[in-house]
Amino acid sequence: MGPIRIIGLFSMLVMIAGCDYDPSLDTKEDLLLIPYQPVSLATPSLPTYPAMEIPSDNPLTQAGVALGRKLFYDPILSGDSTQSCSSCHHLNQSFTDGLATSKGIDGLSGRRSAMSLIDAGFQRAGLFWDGRVSTLEAQALLPVEDVLEMHFNWPDAIQRLQRHKDYPTDFRKAFGITTIDSITKYLAARAISQFERTMVSSGKSKYDLALTPGSGVFFTESELRGFDMYFDKSGGRLPDAECFHCHNAPLMASTDFLITVYNKSVHWMILKIREGVPFQAQLPKMVCLELRP
């Protein structure tokens, strides 16, 4: 593609992206005439899961979740307005993208794959693959400014939201702000977090139903043997399949952050790694698993 075509395409994208912006908009404009009547939503729950913890300063509301969903699917938060959260977290792939590494707006591959956001609201031990943040609110802030992802900056992103024809009203309905310039990155992150907390497993899998008292669903004998091997519950009658160490109930995940290291004498070594510990540091061994044919 030649330089003229590239410039033309970029201009067209900017023009399209700018259709919903009003540069002359007074960000001090009063929003008090717009009704603020928050409607609470029930906290998502499943019989086999622990209770989801909702921050006291970010309760789930209809308007908050709706705003979060809108921001999640809107490329407005990326540098060139071409990529949204949903670009790497697809609904039909359990809110991931199925790729080994995800690409940002510049076509550069990230360091890790996009995590599934299903049941992210139940996570308590940290988010991202390395657990570097402890809340969804903190997590939602980082992709926007990551040069390998959305490659933008929050001050300019907030200007886009403040000068948008719809977002000031949406933020007013969600959070009761009184002026347009009250829109902040923290409110945007709170809205996205509310939406992410609604991404919950259906609870209708046979596994979930078999563990739910009164469901009338039971494992077959073969499935029960697999269950006992998976969780090492056979009392020695069956071999331990070593699954639950890393994929334990109820979320089928571990609350530890692990790194897999190839070693000639031990095929795979699972080591615990904590935030801030350099890879070169001596790390405590957690468990060794031998690859089996």
General description of the model:
The chain is mainly alpha-helical and 293 residues long. It is built from nine helices and three strands. The chain has helices at 3-17, 62-73, 136-139, 142-145, 154-162, 167-175, 185-196, 206-210, 221-231, and strands at 258-262, 268-272, 285-289. Strands 1-2-3 form a three-stranded antiparallel β-sheet, with no helix packed on it. Helix 2 (62-73) runs antiparallel to helix 6 and helix 2 crosses helix 7. It is elongated.
Q: What structural class do helix, strand and pairing data support?
A: mainly alpha
Strand content is 5-15%
Q: In angstroms, what separates the terminal alpha carbons?
A: 49 Å
Bin the helical content.
25-40%
SSE pattern? HHHHHHHHHEEE
Rg on CA atoms, Å: 23 Å
Number of E-state strands: 3
| Average residue pLDDT | 80
> Can you count the helices?
9
User: Which strand order does the major sheet show?
Assistant: 1-2-3
Sheet with the most strands, sense and barrel status: 3 strands, antiparallel
Basic shape: elongated
Sequence stretches where pLDDT stays below 50 over 5 or more residues: 1-18, 262-293
Please summarize what this structure is.
With 293 residues, this protein is mainly alpha-helical. The chain contains 9 helices and 3 strands, in the order H-H-H-H-H-H-H-H-H-E-E-E.
List keywords for this structure.
293 residues, mainly alpha, elongated, disordered C terminus
Indicate the topology.
Blueprint: H1 3-17, H2 62-73, H3 136-139, H4 142-145, H5 154-162, H6 167-175, H7 185-196, H8 206-210, H9 221-231, E1 258-262, E2 268-272, E3 285-289
Antiparallel strand pairs: 1-2, 2-3
Helix pairs in contact: 2-6, 2-7
